[in-house]
Amino acid sequence: MIELNRRHLLAGVAAVGAASVARLGTTPAHAAVPQAGTQAPGFYRYKVGSYECTSINDGARTFPMPDKFVANVAKEEALAAADAAYMPKGMVTIPFNPQLINTGSKLVLIDSGNGIGNFEPSKGAVGRTLQNLAAAGVDPKSIDIVLLSHLHPDHTNGIRAADGSIAFPNAEIMVPAVDWAFWASEENASKAPNDMMKNYFANVKKTFGGIESKVTKYEWGKEVAPGITSIATPGHTPGHTSFAVASGGSTVLVQSDVTNIPELFLRNPDWHVAFDVDGPKAQETRHKFYDMAAAEKATVVGFHFTFPSVGHVEKDGAKYRLIPSAWNPTI
Hints:
Elements: H1 6-24, E1 43-48, E2 51-56, E3 59-64, H2 75-84, E4 91-96, E5 99-102, E6 107-110, H3 129-135, E7 145-147, H4 153-156, E8 172-176, H5 177-183, H6 186-190, H7 195-208, E9 215-218, E10 223-225, E11 228-232, E12 241-247, E13 250-256, H8 262-265, H9 279-296, E14 299-302, E15 310-316, E16 319-324
Parallel strand pairs: 6-7, 7-8, 8-9, 13-14
Antiparallel strand pairs: 1-2, 2-5, 3-4, 5-6, 10-11, 11-12, 12-13, 14-15, 15-16
């Protein structure tokens, strides 16, 4: 009987390494086939009734956790949660996943990602929406509606191509009326409490400057595109919006940023991420939304869930947990 323990494992790793060196001497190892060095395209299709939906991966950012990444708990506690989720030591990883909804009559992109070149140090780790749309066989010119959940940069900047032109030239750009009123206000901008908020206000002005006539403001509780209804989920921003996508008796909830990365904020729904404009309101919204989603056993799609970002939310005492949907090789 073989007894496996950590000492045996580490000894085995050391033995393999020593044997490799002995066989190879000082000659570098070269496989017959060179390593690819690149990641595969990131898109995943799923059905909602007769609608074909596609989760489009815009990439992921890994960065040192800021001191107040979680605004209302000690950094050590937040780091422990990240460590428990096997994120790199001292770091936090945030994925980004817009959704493409083909209703049969309209092609709707929910959120547009970070855009190309907005995070230069990322070396292509984010801003991958256009290349992944292309990999999925989707021409940006064919998109009818870009439906924005709120006006934070990682959701809006992808409406611009790298040269500053409109990435989706034939699309109607739809924004929540409440969020537009907040972020477009010069008075609100003058009262921005910190550099991050100041940058958010400036980014809205930069991103939407000159294209105001292409922007449609939508209200909550309305069908904003065929089979897609806007849901009021304020707190993260004043006009933050989620969506119910319904077809043929099936419904998926696109939760946008009701929670940021679930490993921290779904497991700890009373934590406030630094990006929340109103942390207590976001906390209240989070509980209401997930209590409803859990009771309905609804499929939930999260912008910051691990790709392909589709799953179910279950109550776990006063907390919640995400149950990712199994990867389906067919549609």
